[in-house]
Amino acid sequence: MSKEKVVIITGAGRGIGAATAKLFANNNYAVCINYKSDEKSASELAKLITCEGGRCITVQADVSCENDVERLFSTVDKTFGAVTVLVNNAGILKKQSKLVDMTAERINSMLSNNVTSYFLCCREAVKRMSTERGGLGGVIVNVSSGAARSGSPNEYIDYAASKGAIDTLTKGLSLEVAAEGIRVNCVRPGLIYTDMHADGGEPERIERLKSIIPLQRGGQPEEVAEAIYWLASDKSSFSTGNYLDLAGGL
Ligand code: NAP
């Protein structure tokens, strides 16, 4: 049975998610561009994809909220059919801070936006993809971070720990659903040129740190998108439970 190629990319209005949405659309996927609050960026991206002959929809949903995630997936069911690829990409970063100054509110917000969201979206994807539940299989790609390896001391241990959780989610879920036709992998980008560094309070952070990157530069969102696309494609058909580092050698 042939499958319609349908991808849901969370947090796809800007940054790495937007570059990924363009790449999947160029490869004949029906693309769901999820965003939380920046409607303008999401609709401009959708216009661009549509003008170039691609198929996409935008869906506002806060993926840390269970009801929103359920609505996101059921909207895609109705519009394109069941999802075949999930890219868990939405994420937040808060101002640089030592752990000693972090509030419970900050830590809980970090974990619900960066971890609960991925769990909920994985759950909805598995329900639709699993061959044990009548699905046709599928692929999940989680966007983790090099921070899961470094721990980000003095800057954002909360963010780094949230990404460590994504590495463990990737490993555990990949083993849980391997016999159900679903592959689960993750990418771990290093310093990538997006708006996220401004959210951390240092828009020029990559300029400060690029001399310690072996390749001597930050990465572009498109370079991460290519790796996500490869992990989602049949070209990586024997890969599951793996982490692909994209950090210029860091
Ligand atoms: P970005 O440009 O700041 O974009 C973040 C995206 O996530 C935005 O589209 C935002 O939506 C969305 N988002 C945040 N919370 C959400 C929620 N609860 N529900 C739905 N959408 C939500 O960041 P980016 O750099 O592209 O980051 C993408 C992913 O890469 C993140 O997981 C990040 O941790 C990871 N990463 C980034 C870097 C880097 O150097 N940039 C390095 C390693 C890993 P709105 O547009 O509506 O605000």
Automatic annotation (TrEMBL):
Its recorded name reads: 3-oxoacyl-[acyl-carrier-protein] reductase FabG
Which species is this record about?
Answer: Colwellia psychrerythraea (Vibrio psychroerythus)
| Highest taxon of the lineage | Bacteria
- Among the Pfam families in the record, one is adh_short_C2
Q: Which reaction does it catalyse?
A: a (3R)-hydroxyacyl-[ACP] + NADP(+) = a 3-oxoacyl-[ACP] + NADPH + H(+)
What are the record keywords, sorted? Answer: NADP, Oxidoreductase
Which InterPro entries does the record cross-reference, listed alphabetically? NAD(P)-bd_dom_sf (IPR036291), SDR_fam (IPR002347)
Its function, per the record, reads: Catalyzes the NADPH-dependent reduction of beta-ketoacyl-ACP substrates to beta-hydroxyacyl-ACP products, the first reductive step in the elongation cycle of fatty acid biosynthesis.
**Protein family according to the UniProt entry:** Belongs to the short-chain dehydrogenases/reductases (SDR) family.
Which parts of the chain span the membrane according to its record? none
Give one GO molecular function term: 3-oxoacyl-[acyl-carrier-protein] reductase (NADPH) activity
Q: Cross-referenced Gene3D superfamilies, in alphabetical order?
A: NAD(P)-binding Rossmann-like Domain
